[in-house]
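I had to read the description of the data format several times before I understood it. For illustration, here is how one protein appears when written out as sequence plus structure tokens:
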Amino acid sequence: MNLVQKKKVCILPQRLGLGGPAAFQGGLISVLQRRGIDISSDPLEAGNAAILVFGAARNTGEIVLAQRAGVRVVQRLNGMNWVHRRRFTGIKHFLKAEYGNLKLRRLRKSADGIIYQSAFARSWWEREDGRLEKPQFVIHNGVDLEFFSPDPVTLPPDRYRVLMVEGHHGGGYDQGLVTAARLLQQLRNLADRACELAVVGDVPAALKQEIDNFGVTVKWLGVVQRTEIPAIDRSAHLLFSGDVNASCPNSVIEAMACGLPVVAYDTGALPELVSTDAGRIAPYGADVWKLEPPDIASLANAAWQVLQNRQALSRGARVRAGSNFDIERVADRYLTVLLGE
């Protein structure tokens, strides 16, 4: 990477919040800085060779001026806001979601290149917003394989622990947590020991109460530091990814890197991410785009298969992460798109 040691890349917006986009962005920035790339947050800063926009940004006018001055603009896209069109989440949230989609569309048309998080995300955008005649790439997210490692394992000896990791639950995305509770209800009838659900992330009090009413054992871990995630992953028997039509959930890649098998429905990018040697993908069994209730029995059977074969699937999950989601190789691909080197 000697040829790019003195290059500068502007990354927008630079997030400090919860969730996968912030986690991946932070990991990517760390790798780029280790390789001698200067990172800026000002589109008009002298020396910018490229601007990488995660979704959309507020600096629209400045981005346009930089682009006119010859700075390459690349947009990183996941999916678009859609749940608010299927479920009432409030007028304010509806308007905010639609405005967000509008900003994403505008930048998608004006950017010099697009990086989609998954083939699913690309096909979704092309279906909803048309195909584009410009450089476009599918690059899955990546993780630090030394930080997210499979040792040491600290599984509870007397019960199966199913883990969910999200930045925020609720706000129209509560179906995943409800599905997890229903999964626990059926899984405890199949399993040979007690089952519990461990939940990482911000959960509204009303949703906690709804989940508690299902009568399953839940450990509410709350919002945790990023540095705590590997140990939490290593303390569970499987991860349930409950976000339907997700473009590339970081929690799934992080779990596999820690040797934690994954169970999910066959929606979004999950079939791209989770191979049969790293977990199980269950048929949703209904129209996911209408948020119809999913097939819980198929999910419970998939989870029980994982628990019965956990040791082999744990090894497979780690191999899968190492072969496909190494942040170092992901950074190589981003640099090629951004700097052409």
